[in-house]
Amino acid sequence: MAxxxxxxxxxxxxVKHHKLTKVKLVKxxxxxxxxxxxxxxxxxxxxxxxKIMDGGIVGISIIVSHLTGxxxxxxxxxxxxxxxxxxxxxxxxxxxxxxxFGITIMSLATIFLHPVPAFTDDILLATVFGxxxxxxxxxxxxxxxxxxxxxxxxxILINKRLPFSVGEIIMFFNIFIFASGGxxxxxxxxxxxxxxxxxxxxxxxxxxEGLDQSKSAWIISEKYTEIGDTIMARLGRGVTYLxxxxxxxxxxxxxxxxxxxxxxxxxxxxxxxxxxxSSFLAVADIAEVRGGRFKKKAIH
Length: 300
Description:
Strand order of the largest sheet: 2-3-1-4
Distance between the termini: 62 Å
């Protein structure tokens, strides 16, 4: 056992941590800053003045701030601070520092924006645009390696000990928080808070994945060469041929794999259907695509 531990430690020492370049570091700092400020704008100029909450630690901070009369930014920082140390230990230094920077900027921005009057007192407008601002801010921070709420870190740790997913744990926390908010702000505000949270959740997905979401396509056909050539010629997409075997027949199969945008899906189906109407086609969403040698061409 001692020998194995020694070998593991030796291997760990050989693995170098690749530091971010100055350009990437500056880019990360800028977008973490923008994301944290957007979060603060959503809170202080839309949600909080209209007694609408967010979920997680931010939601708890809003309730405690309302009950004590102490500025929201103070609770945002001190209630999230413990999770910085947890993230540093269990997730990584870069994530922890990005999270600390984001939470600090968010807290300071909410204190700075506190005297600013609400942009609207229309409860529905405040819910929608507050949710959009929150989602855009949180999405940017997550996309660039940080977090603005310690609930997710806590959920990851609980997930290791209990048979519940991270999403289920966060949902349980938020049900409790919104229910508590119902007693403090009223049940209509709790329902608006749930709507704002749902909007923010959807906007987070858009910011992280992008509007031009990519899709992967898997095609099984005897005419795989013709299909592959046509995809490259008409969509300008790279194609990979994979070897497969039919589980029932035992026959060798060729699988055509390619990545397309969601706008190209209809054209791809048209191409495959036109060449081999009996082919098998499966299309799935992809969160992110990097690399590739083929440049995009116009669809024709």
